Amino acid sequence: QVQLVESGGGSVQSGGSLRLSCSAFGYTYSVYCMGWFRQAPGKEREGVAAIDSDGNTRYADSVKGRFTISQDNAKNTLYLQMNSLKLEDTAMYYCAAAYYSGGYCFEGDEYNYWGQGTQVTVSS
User: Fold this and answer.
1) How many other C-beta atoms are found inside a 10 Å radius of the C-beta of residue 10?
2) Are 52 and 33 in contact (CB under 8 A)?
3) In whole angstroms, what is the distance from residue 18 CA to residue 16 CA?
């Protein structure tokens, strides 16, 4: 079992920055992918960014160049640095962890554990 706890969400004006954190607890050493997903009201969940155990990263086209995913293995913590935030970034953001499944770490179905979510609200 892996438990994930997100923090760092909040309200920010358009163009601003936020850093999300996700602390992982439990049976983490077999985790292969860590990712951030988001879901806005009335929309489907979408992958935002992911990182695998080799340090390879993937980003949604909508956030490339603005968001950076990173992890501190010593602290079992995943981060998402979000810069130049836009109104359309408003959503509930979820941290997720996956064991190896042969995928690319970017589909929600690959993930085994999810955090409770943290709200990000961008205003004009």
Assistant:
1) 12
2) yes
3) 7
Q: Round to whole Å and give the CA distance between 29 and 8.
A: 24
Does 20 score more than 90 pLDDT? Answer: yes
What is the number of residues in the chain? Answer: 124
pLDDT at 102: 82
Q: How far is CA 2 from the centre of its chain?
A: 16
Contact yes or no for 75/112 (Cβ under 8 A): no
Tokens of 3: 């438990």
Let me know: does 68 contact 86? Beta carbons within 8 Å.
no
CA distances from 66 to 28, 43, 46, 98 (A): 28, 21, 16, 24
- Exposed e or buried b per residue across 61-81, where buried means at least 16 C-beta atoms within 10 angstroms of its C-beta: eebeeebebebeeeebbbbbe
The answer, yes or no, to whether residue 52 has pLDDT greater than 90, is yes
